[in-house]
Write a structure and sequence with these properties.
Blueprint: H1 16-22, H2 26-32, E1 33-36, E2 41-44, H3 51-63, H4 90-98, E3 102-107, H5 110-123, H6 126-132, H7 146-154, H8 168-171, E4 181-184, H9 188-200, H10 229-238, H11 240-246, H12 269-276, H13 285-297, H14 303-316
Parallel strand pairs: 2-3, 3-4
Antiparallel strand pairs: 1-2
Helix pairs in contact: 1-14, 5-6, 7-10, 12-14, 13-14
């Protein structure tokens, strides 16, 4: 699966305006959002979270073919019967991300997800290894062990990571996009069955299904052989936002447990601010504005992204004339 979604390296990134407002990578956005306009749904892919099984099922239903008959090309975005965002009219793109379309996805504990990515992309396949290593600042013929891989990953900005190793909370655009359903890899059988029931209907679609095996690595059973105290600490640091915002335990022995969360995440500038490490725009509006200004001035946020967050903070967290943050209803 290519991070550039099969587009030529020199090609202009798609969705420039939308990507700038979301602070997203246009190529990744165009690749990861899988809409089915006929059904009014969209799957936002999280790589290494049973995405092969989900996309195979959706593509089979959209194309009218048996499941698993198109596995060889399931990750070829241009061959998918589910359109790219960039192929749709602008109003439809906005509806898919912000309108009444029902969006869903699945998440995975960072401990098992990053190990699965390492085993799949750097151990199992020499072609994948030679493709990923230069992105990590390593020679294409290197054979890094798991600790060396994590250190290389930590040396790169999160925004520069391949989608298999990026924060799920960023790929999901938490706070910017509302979800109808957010399942988990740890309970994938039941959660995938529920997604099928919700979006496709029929008792036959509600039968339980396990994660797809096309890129399976069995990472959950290999934790003890790859994690020591240093690796545990590094993954906690690398994926701190995912542990916090997705409800996962930071204890390695609890990596197989489902996340603790109640409702699927909604569109919220406060959640977006948490994901970006900014102060709460409702509880500390002055600090939020100052941090946002600094992030924009320092080039950490595009002007369009900063403007979007300012506007939304004004709409979602309004302060009346002469009202201090301590007096707002949200903070009482």
């Amino acid at each position: 699966m290519a991070d550039t979604a099969g587009q030529p390296p020199g090609a202009a990134a798609p969705l420039p305006g939308l990507a700038a407002r979301l602070g997203a990578n246009g190529r990744q956005l165009d690749y990861l959002v899988n809409p089915d306009p006929a059904r009014g749904i969209a799957y936002v892919e999280t790589p290494k979270v049973a995405c092969t099984a989900v996309k195979d099922f959706m593509q089979s239903r959209a194309a009218g073919r048996p499941p698993s008959s198109g596995l060889a090309r399931v990750h070829d975005r241009d061959a998918s019967p589910l359109p790219r965002l960039s192929a749709l009219p602008v109003p439809q793109r906005r509806a898919i991300l912000f309108g009444p379309v029902r969006r869903f996805s699945f998440t995975r504990n960072p401990f098992t997800r990053v190990l699965s990515g390492y085993l799949d992309k750097l151990v199992a396949s020499s072609w994948e290894r030679s493709r990923h290593l230069p992105r990590l600042g390593l020679p294409p013929d290197a054979m890094p062990d798991f600790p060396a891989f994590l250190r290389a990953l930590a040396s790169r900005p999160e925004s520069a990571r391949d989608i298999h190793f990026a924060d799920q909370s960023r790929l999901l655009m938490l706070g910017d996009v509302a979800y109808d359903f957010l399942g988990a890899f740890e309970t994938f059988g039941g959660d995938f069955a529920e997604a099928k029931r919700r979006y496709y209907g029929g008792a036959e679609e509600a039968a339980e299904a396990g994660p797809g095996r096309h890129h399976a690595t069995g990472a959950g059973g290999k934790l003890a052989g790859h994690y020591g105290p240093a690796e545990i600490a590094l993954v906690r640091k690398l994926y701190a936002r995912d542990f916090e915002l997705l409800g996962y335990s930071t204890e390695l022995e609890e990596a197989g447990l489902p996340p603790v969360r109640t409702e699927p995440p909604q569109r919220s500038v406060r959640l977006a601010a948490r994901r970006l490490g900014l102060p709460d725009p409702a509880g500390a509006p002055a600090a939020f504005r100052a941090a946002l200004d600094a992030a924009e001035a320092g080039g950490r946020l595009p002007p369009e992204r900063a403007a979007n967050l300012r506007r939304r903070a004004g709409e979602e967290c309004p302060l009346g004339p002469g009202v201090s943050p301590a007096e707002t209803p949200r903070s009482r």
